[in-house]
Amino acid sequence: xxxxxxxxxxxxxGAAERSEYGNPIIxxxxxxxTVQAEVVASPVKLYxxxxxxxxxxxxxxxxxxxxxxxxxxxxxRGMLFxxxxxxxxxxxxxxxxxxxxxxxxxxxRSPRPVQYVLEVPAGFCHRHRITPGDPVSFRRxxxx
Length: 144
Fold this sequence. Notes:
Layout: H1 2-6, E1 17-18, E2 24-30, E3 33-40, H2 43-48, E4 60-70, E5 73-74, E6 83-89, E7 92-100, E8 108-109, E9 114-121, H3 124-127, E10 136-137
Parallel strand pairs: 3-4
Antiparallel strand pairs: 1-2, 2-3, 2-10, 4-9, 5-8, 6-7, 6-9
């Protein structure tokens, strides 16, 4: 029931603001804290993510819309700053990888199958006491 309200489509006719990288920006709310998140869904943008960017401003993030609900694998390839990775499934936080350094060489895996991942500046999960089960909501934009 919650899924229908949370994952509805945003009208495509230029309604979404866009980042300097051309990605739509939408509000994503995690445990009552709203982040303005760039949305990426194409294979190329999913692969690139936040790589090679100099930073991520407070209150900003990147929402990955992945093609299937499955165990997701992320790495810090080309990253220049630390982040928190929030794994999202069925409208809630599944887990949080906190303070992942750009030098991290491990492959980071979601603790359960998920379709959404939110990357935010390092310290977000600690500062806002984000834990598994916390609610997450956003209006899923139409993606091409």
